[in-house]
Amino acid sequence: DSKNTGWSVVEDPQLVVEPWNYVFAAGNGLWHGPDSSEPSDHSFVSPELKVGPDGMSLTLKHRYSFETDGIGYYDGGVIELSDDGGTLWVDVTAVPGVAISNGYTQSLAAAPSKNPIAGRRAFGGPSPGYPTAWITTKVEIGKILAGKALKFRFRSASDDTVGAPGWDIDEVVATGLTNKPFGSQVVHRGACVMKPPSMFQIS
Q1: Where residue 182 falls among pLDDT bands split at 50, 70, 90?
Q2: 3-state class percentages of the chain: helix first, strand second, coil last, to nearest 5
Q3: CB within 10 Å: which end of the chain, N or C, has fewer?
Q4: 93-124 pLDDT, tens per residue?
Q5: Angle at 84 between CA 175 and CA 66, to 5 degrees
Q6: End-to-end C-alpha distance for the chain, whole angstroms
Q7: Which CA distances in Å does 179 have to 85, 148, 159?
Q8: Whether the Cβ atoms of residue 76 and residue 124 lie closer than 8 Å to each other
């Protein structure tokens, strides 16, 4: 839950701009992706993660609440990866050999929705126990991408009706890498506020 993690935020400038932001309150820090009330496409992008010979895993502790009327699901969040530095992105569920636990929950409304990810499977509606409970999602990538330098992005997108609280990510842990794109847990050294250890880590 550290702000200085090597991750970046990216927006589609043709749509409403409301970037992911770091929130620190009640002794805890997290990254928040908004669910906007206008068409939007907000991404929280990792640094390059170099996959080891036996594959890798990415585990996140998160919670979310995206627009729904109890019948349809209109806004949502997805996890995508890129192996070319961020030019081309694909959904992690489309990669052969990838296993996901606690993955997508809903199918988003299709056209004529103005959501950039309309019609896709995604995290939709509220996560179980929201806002009190957090869930853990794990993405396991096998040897098919061994040796590749991957980027991941958490992509929150919305249509043109109403918004919702959005997506909070509290912890991200990567294992099976050959590089160290973001540091291990380190206690914040600020003299004014002692933040908890960073939970954006590699092991």
Answers
A1: confident
A2: 5, 45, 50
A3: C
A4: 999 989 999 999 999 999 899 999 999 999 99
A5: 65
A6: 16
A7: 15, 11, 38
A8: yes
